[in-house]
Amino acid sequence: MALRLRDDFLWGAATSGHQVEGGNWNSDWWEFEHAAGAPVSGPSGDACDSYHRFEEDIQLVRDLGLNAYRFGVEWPRVEPEDGEFSIAAIDHYRRVVATCRERGIEPLVTFSHHTLPRWAAHRGGWLWPELPQRFGRYADRLSRAFGDELRWVMTINQPDLVANIGYRYGQEPAGWEALKSTDGEAVAQRCTPLLLAGHRLAREAIRASMPGASVGVGLASVEWTGFEGSEEELEQLPAVREWDGPFYNETGGDDYVGVQVYTRRLAVPLDGSPALSPGLEGYPEPPGTRLTSAGWPFHPESLAPAVRRTARKTGLPILITENGIGTEDDAERIEFLTRALGSLGEAVRDGIDVRGYFHWSLLDNFEWGQGYGVRFGIAEVDRRTFARTLKPSAHVLGGYARRNEVP
Ligand code: BGC
């Protein structure tokens, strides 16, 4: 039986600046993509040229019957040098917001999605003690410019992932640099408090100039599977506690929390071997586990447990700010989406306050270290002409949105 959702439910698709805009050459990622030996399969180049084609992207969202669009502002464009702000770049992002409004689309704007301006990364990125203050200053500039135009803002995309994958394992530029002289554990521990401070300062700036906006972070929420003890015991496993514990604690002063869920992690080995403490990425999956083309276990039903855990830990209203699958096969995307929305329905039936669902992603875009080889989009992008072609999954998502229901 289909379940009808609240009338103001946000149905959206998500992107981030660097992954779709193109030509983001002043960012640390651009430099990383061209550095010898960096763990990146190739440059982002023109990406999807969304910096120029944002109207077309917003129109796609509208034509599908969605009512919301999540996109990112690129700090490297807005503040190309320390303390030097670009009026033209800020005006550009105001036009993106205005276009959303004209077309009846609710914008959710991310202030930092994995990239930093080069000048900030060269001083250590999220390991530089002054970065939180700089991030707060940038957030203040943006907030004054957007004023009362925004109702939904995300300060930092997945600070938990930035700390634990980006810096601990050197998958992001400043982390990669730092690991040349320090170990991952120390790096993750140093950047976590700075990410939290950056979030707090940005939140203050947003509240001061945009009193009508809801502010939060999106966390790389995971379903920890296979643990038979109590919920409290699960939360005490070092991997579970270290991954996102400090970040969940920080959401206390936020207005909402974004759940970004793609897959599950194993809290105990499924092959019966003795369970010590799992690594941050959980125990290995048993042989034969169905994997997506991003190499992650295919597990759309992770959505409800991830939402339940987040609700339990934060008590805040929830937006699913990312959920999706990297696959070449759109029929597999439809299967994933349908089952994930069914799982969302379970969480809603439990009475959890879920306000929206944003599919990752609107476009086949630059998938960070994996380049253009992994496709998350509900629309394909011709890499030569940038023409967008909606995939059947886009219409399936649009259908649920128009009916405002989940299976
Ligand atoms: C990130 C996106 C990324 C997606 C798929 C999320 O963790 O926010 O930028 O493309 O996962 O890997």
Q: How would you portray this structure in words?
A:
The N and C termini lie close together (6 Å). The protein has an eight-stranded parallel barrel, surrounded by eight helices. The model has no long low-confidence stretch (mean pLDDT 96). 42% of the residues lie in helices and 15% in strands. The protein has helices spanning 17-20, 28-33, 50-64, 75-78, 87-102, 118-122, 131-146, 159-167, 173-178, 184-209, 231-236, 238-250, 303-314, 330-349, 392-403; strands spanning 3-4, 10-14, 68-72, 106-112, 152-157, 214-219, 223-225, 257-261, 264-266, 318-323, 354-360, 379-381, 388-390, 405-406. By secondary structure, the chain is an alpha/beta fold. Strand 12 (379-381) and strand 13 (388-390) form a beta hairpin. The structure holds beta-D-glucopyranose. Beta-D-glucopyranose (BGC) binds next to loops.
The count of helical stretches stands at 15
Report the radius of gyration as a whole number of Å: 20 Å
Cofactors, ions and other ligands in the entry: beta-D-glucopyranose
Unreliable segments of 5+ consecutive residues? none
- The fraction of residues in strands falls at 15-25%
Strand order of the largest sheet: 2-3-4-5-6-8-10-11
Euclidean distance between termini CA atoms: 6 Å
Biggest beta sheet attributes: 8 strands, parallel, barrel
One letter per element, helices H and strands E, the order comes to EEHHHEHHEHHEHHHEEHHEEHEHEEEHE
Number of strands: 14
> How would you sum up the global shape?
globular
Q: What's the overall average pLDDT, rounded? A: 96
* Portion of residues within helices: 40-55%
